[in-house]
Amino acid sequence: MSPRANVTRRATISKQTRRWLVHLGLIATAVTSLMFEFVLTVHIIVGLVFVAFVLAHLAQRRRSSHRLLRRLAKVPLLRQPLGRLAVADLVLALLTVGMLASGLWDWSLGHPTRIRYHALLGVALAILLVTHTFSRWKRLRKSDVR
Q1: From CA 141, how far away is CA 21, in angstroms rounded?
Q2: Distance CA 53, CA 26 (A)
Q3: Which of 68, 81, 95, 136 could make an S-S bridge to 86, C-beta 3.0–4.6 Å?
């Protein structure tokens, strides 16, 4: 094996390792945040770390994210599986932003709001995250670099 091929192989392994670490970080922080919801400080810190992992995940999947955004611009979106996937990913992103915003809003007030937007968004986000993870389980296990 040439030295150049060896460097390329190491870089590929490094990308795969980083992708796996981000995936594990996303799963671990989501579960931890839910489990420690009653300990506000832990919940806030872990929730912010989750948002950081989401940003890292999106950065790692830039090309896929761009393709999904382009699909959203097409009219017959819901008739195609990839179009529905794009809509589901957009909803996932909006729920994540909504969770961050409503959590910061509740925290700034010093108490939960009466309607509990953060809790309602949390239930929706948890359901969608489980669906998102299991629908991509095969790709997650392979964690291929595209």
Answers
A1: 12
A2: 6
A3: 68
